[in-house]
Hints:
With 233 residues, the chain is an all-alpha fold. The chain has a single domain, classed as Growth Hormone, Chain: A (Up-down Bundle), CATH 1.20.1250. It has eight helices and no strands. α1 packs parallel to α7, α4 runs antiparallel to α5 and α4 packs antiparallel against α8. The longest helix has 28 residues, at 8-35. The protein is globular, with a radius of gyration of 18 Å.
Amino acid sequence: MDARSPNASDDVRLVRSLLALTVVTGLIDAVSFLGLGHIFTANMTGNVVFLAFALGGAQGLSVVRSVTALCVFACGSLLAGRVANRHPRAPGDLLLAAMRAECVLLLLAAGLTVSAPAELHAATAYAVIVCTAFAMGLRNAVVRKLAVPDLTTTVLTLTVTGLAADWSLAGGNGARSGRRALSIIAMFGGALAGALLLRGFGMRVPLAVAALLVGFSALQLHSKSRASALDPS
């Protein structure tokens, strides 16, 4: 099956999984920005801007942490791209493999913070950056390969643009407006939940919630994929 041309049933499964992963992105961005020194481990646009600000003399930003997140994210994307290009799979299987890896890495990140103090030691902070950025790089490479419209799981700029530009007030037909709105709400909800959980329980809880959400979504995707394989009709 062509990874860019899933059938209708695959599309429904992928949309649900991608929306769940968008929630996870909000959680991870909340953890990384609020808990790891004003960086992002999912949103690389932010890191590029923060890096420029830091080099320009802005206070409270870390060049090293921004560069670390960027490089590790790129390594994760490189590995996922290599695997996806050398071993073509059905869209659901490809996403499922990335979600399993992401779940393991997020659990590892959560484990690193279980007994850590409120202010993470530098080594622990960098370990969490590596785990989360690598997980996000893996996932984003796969999501890009799938190319499901308006569901990048990480960047909302084009989603907001499409929602506004295709609105009836702009003379559009409102195509995929529901999906776009859900993607925005999912990111917002994940970020809000991440900020509240971080403030109330520290870093380990939002990381654990993110890992559990990815794991649950992967289990759902796996179950539905098996059901479809057994009943192709």
